Amino acid sequence: MAIHPIDYRYGSEEMKRIWEEENKLQKLLDVEAALARAHAQLGNIPEESAKIISERANTKWVRVERVQEIEEEIHHDIMAVVKALSEVCGEHGKYIHLGATSNDIIDTANALLIKESLEIVLKDLKELRTILKSLAKEHKYTVCIGRTHGQHAVPTTYGMKFAIWLDEIQRHIERIEEAKKRILVGQMSGAVGTMASFGEMGLKIQELVMKDLGLKSALISNQIIQRDVYAELMSILAIIASTLDKIALEIRNLQRTEILEISEPFGKKQVGSSTMPHKRNPIRSEKISGLARVIYSNIIPALLNNPLWHERDLTNSSVERVILPETFVLLDEMLKNMKKVLLGLEFFPENIKKNLYLTKNLIMAEPLMLKLTEKGMGRQEAHELVRRLAMKAFEENRDLLEVLSESKEAREYLTDDDLASLKPENYIGMAPQIVDNVIAYVEEKEKTEES
């Protein structure tokens, strides 16, 4: 019976399939088979034995149910796999797991699972990158109010918002690609990592096994791959989650009734509330922000798994059975929901413009100050003058430009044409060029990936 929501509610079947018992068992069997082939290549075991072990090291021969049955009896998960594989290999079973320790198999299999999972994450990130790039191009000149401290600041553009997120997603792609050489590593080093059980062939056996499996060999281990590797992985996944949380939070805020500049898509038959039929709740964005909190919390146990007693203990094992699949499945759910949200994003241009002018040009205080400075007034003097006029406009609920036009101090420097030029739409600085720079950078990276 399913208990955890990742079993029935969150994550794609593609991602969940990776972390299901059958695929996890298959990865353990893949490592055992690669070890047998390495031994055969070096003349340690008959080639026929390695062939039989390789042919039968799959879940058609070795059933999950049989492994569980053996483990129930002997209370050791890897020996249960070894015994179940040995049963179906007959006389050749005596060569299985030769010289290996449990974590040689577990940690190398984990690297294979992580490798498969990261490919899905990268695929989703690249699709998200494409969506954001399109939105940044489309809304390069969509001027809106920028907000700091929750208050109206100065104008910005929606192109800038999307380009910020685009740039961040690109960094995540680069982070994963760069970290792969540290994360996708396996070992075949025996008890406490000295390779004594493999004799003088230890380094060669590890090299052959990892080459066979498409992994990098750990330079050194002490029976386990050091858990700073897993901590780095979990940190990267959590940073990705924080970006998705950031995007979702901004969409949720901009969808507030009193703002309503953009909105996540809402289906024709979608229900927003069981009691308030009018509601259009941002449920996908809220789910993304909520699931991010679980992923953040998984960093702490990953860090605690790095310090273990002496060469190793088992306190990391039970934790990793939870946090690895949980984090990958939840991040998968977040990424796929974010793609849906951004692909169907609704814009409300009339509200974007209304909010831009909501403060009756108070947001033009900075360009006013700079215009006065340009015309000869000292910067500090201009700041104080505009501050006083802005406070007056706020208190009297009047347009700042109107109040300014009545100021003798200001009018000594500013003409009617100067005032007419002070429009929010004209004060976006280099925003379009900045967006173009981000898009150009990302497109250059895409070309590099293709080559």
Give a structural overview.
- This protein has 451 residues and is mainly α.
- The chain has 19 helices and 6 strands.
- The chain has helices at residues 13-19, 21-41, 47-56, 64-74, 77-89, 102-138, 158-183, 202-213, 228-254, 283-297, 299-304, 315-343, 349-356, 365-374, 379-396, 400-405, 408-411, 416-421, 431-450; strands at residues 143-148, 151-157, 185-186, 216-217, 262-263, 346-347.
- The chain has a two-stranded antiparallel ribbon with strand order 1-2. The protein has a two-stranded parallel ribbon with strand order 3-4. A two-stranded antiparallel sheet has the order 5-6.
- Helix 3 (47-56) crosses helix 5 (77-89), helix 4 (64-74) packs across helix 5 and helix 7 packs parallel to helix 19.
- The longest helix is centred in the first third of the chain and has 37 residues, at 102-138.
- The protein is elongated.
- The model has no long low-confidence stretch (mean pLDDT 95).
